[in-house]
Amino acid sequence: MAKKKELPEIEELISESQQVAAEFDSEIFIPDSFQSTQQDLSDRQALRRVIGLSTELSDISEAEYRQLRLERVILVGVWTEGSVKDAENSMEELAALAETAGSTVLDALIQRRDKPDPATFIGSGKVSELKAIVKSTGADTVVCDGELSPSQLRNLEDKVKVKVVDRTALILDIFAQHAKSKEGKAQVELAQMSYMLPRLRGWGDSLSRQAGGIGGRGPGETKIEVDRRRIRDKMSKLRREIGDMKVARDTKRQERKRNSIPSVAIAGYTNAGKSSLLNRLTNAGVLVQNALFATLDPTVRRSETSDGRTYTLSDTVGFVKHLPHDLIDAFKSTLEEVSGADVIVHVVDGSHADPLGQIKAVRGVIADVGGAKIPEIIALNKADIADPQVIAQVLIQEPDAYLISVHSGVGIEKLIRAIESSLPRPRIEIRTVLPYDRGDLVSQIHEHGEILSQEYLPEGTSLHALVDGSLAHALEKYSVN
């Protein structure tokens, strides 16, 4: 286990990163300067919600049947554990989520309780206070920092007379806005339906029986039962479609494994700079935006080590605290890019107020998808604008972390060397002389193996190298003692 860095060493690292950052400020590279990302940004901005569409409920029974439209919101949280700072950080993150969904945050309330109220999430006194704030500010939506049960949603809406949305619905709404690929849209729709199914409510005609014939001949189904059955049928169809798309993704992954191409997954908290890092390392042209969950669809790009070995870098969906389990299940095929990787580059936002909390949340999700034992490299991004005291705290807890700034280029070379040294290396040592008409095998050794020595002889190319099992088998007939 690595020893923790001494404080003077940490201060020296921070000072060095700030000095190099100043030198790189004039650098031309801008992570979001690619033409493709600019087009994606303009398309996304063209689909922003129209200001002025009121969502105030004239009939509370319509709440679960109308499209989620957020505009002027009040945030509500219940502080059950941790410090005041932890509760404030959680509310700041909820505000960022609401703004990413297209809302204007008007006010926020936090109540200290041992546990959320089982009826209305917050206590009756806070409900009255919330109702007065909603009326005075003209808010049309209340966003709660937690996942509310159907009865809590119904009771709170009944009290405040505006739409109530919980954290899970908010995240799902952002995912629905940002999903671009067919697989991404299907995964989001499945997660939304899983969330919506237990929350369907019915009144009046929704509870009437479907009748036929003279007397109806039996009770039949209510309309809400028909709706639930249709949702289940749609969910089954979506699962089949996602399963079919998963086959294509698995085939590509297995092909890379068959060719012994190592894979590196870039994971981390949302808005930590994962896509920017992929762009910096590979010029991938992935969308970069200062927003939560800007990128949902994974992107895989090829790269090479300094000694010519090929490996892949993949950008994954960002994580967040209390990520809905419906989303984890729906995005399981996408998150397998993490669980199937040889190395995980864990990007951390060094400028955030609680980077250690983000690290804990991300590691929890990685463990959920089966990636807990994969080698991890901590890349502490935005070091040029981070608080030195926060950076020092992270380096004490994570002594092997690398200070980087994707924007300025600080620490990128050291990170690349760390990635290359962490990649699995071929283990079978071979000595072979390949005829000059077998340049394909020479190319494969250069691409997938590690050359120890190379010499050109009259009869062919003499190679001393380390290769994997499949390539060693192909070279058997040319091996020499």
From TrEMBL:
<dbReference type="GO" id="GO:0005524">
    <property type="term" value="F:ATP binding"/>
</dbReference>
<feature type="binding site">
    <location>
        <position position="275"/>
    </location>
    <ligand>
        <name>Mg(2+)</name>
    </ligand>
</feature>
<dbReference type="InterPro" id="IPR032305">
    <property type="entry name" value="GTP-bd_M"/>
</dbReference>
<dbReference type="GO" id="GO:0005525">
    <property type="term" value="F:GTP binding"/>
</dbReference>
<keyword id="KW-0963">Cytoplasm</keyword>
<dbReference type="Pfam" id="PF13167">
    <property type="entry name" value="GTP-bdg_N"/>
</dbReference>
<feature type="binding site">
    <location>
        <begin position="293"/>
        <end position="297"/>
    </location>
    <ligand>
        <name>GTP</name>
    </ligand>
</feature>
<dbReference type="Pfam" id="PF01926">
    <property type="entry name" value="MMR_HSR1"/>
</dbReference>
<comment type="subunit">
    <text>Monomer. Associates with the 50S ribosomal subunit.</text>
</comment>
<feature type="binding site">
    <location>
        <position position="295"/>
    </location>
    <ligand>
        <name>Mg(2+)</name>
    </ligand>
</feature>
<dbReference type="InterPro" id="IPR016496">
    <property type="entry name" value="GTPase_HflX"/>
</dbReference>
<keyword id="KW-0460">Magnesium</keyword>
<keyword id="KW-0342">GTP-binding</keyword>
<keyword id="KW-0547">Nucleotide-binding</keyword>
<feature type="binding site">
    <location>
        <begin position="315"/>
        <end position="318"/>
    </location>
    <ligand>
        <name>GTP</name>
    </ligand>
</feature>
<dbReference type="InterPro" id="IPR006073">
    <property type="entry name" value="GTP-bd"/>
</dbReference>
<dbReference type="GO" id="GO:0043022">
    <property type="term" value="F:ribosome binding"/>
</dbReference>
<feature type="binding site">
    <location>
        <begin position="405"/>
        <end position="407"/>
    </location>
    <ligand>
        <name>GTP</name>
    </ligand>
</feature>
<dbReference type="InterPro" id="IPR030394">
    <property type="entry name" value="G_HFLX_dom"/>
</dbReference>
<dbReference type="GO" id="GO:0003924">
    <property type="term" value="F:GTPase activity"/>
</dbReference>
<feature type="domain" description="Hflx-type G">
    <location>
        <begin position="262"/>
        <end position="427"/>
    </location>
</feature>
<dbReference type="GO" id="GO:0046872">
    <property type="term" value="F:metal ion binding"/>
</dbReference>
<comment type="function">
    <text>GTPase that associates with the 50S ribosomal subunit and may have a role during protein synthesis or ribosome biogenesis.</text>
</comment>
<dbReference type="GO" id="GO:0005737">
    <property type="term" value="C:cytoplasm"/>
</dbReference>
<dbReference type="InterPro" id="IPR025121">
    <property type="entry name" value="GTPase_HflX_N"/>
</dbReference>
<protein>
    <recommendedName>
        <fullName>GTPase HflX</fullName>
    </recommendedName>
</protein>
<keyword id="KW-0479">Metal-binding</keyword>
<comment type="similarity">
    <text>Belongs to the TRAFAC class OBG-HflX-like GTPase superfamily. HflX GTPase family.</text>
</comment>
<keyword id="KW-0067">ATP-binding</keyword>
<feature type="binding site">
    <location>
        <begin position="268"/>
        <end position="275"/>
    </location>
    <ligand>
        <name>GTP</name>
    </ligand>
</feature>
<dbReference type="InterPro" id="IPR042108">
    <property type="entry name" value="GTPase_HflX_N_sf"/>
</dbReference>
<dbReference type="Pfam" id="PF16360">
    <property type="entry name" value="GTP-bdg_M"/>
</dbReference>
<feature type="binding site">
    <location>
        <begin position="381"/>
        <end position="384"/>
    </location>
    <ligand>
        <name>GTP</name>
    </ligand>
</feature>
<dbReference type="InterPro" id="IPR027417">
    <property type="entry name" value="P-loop_NTPase"/>
</dbReference>
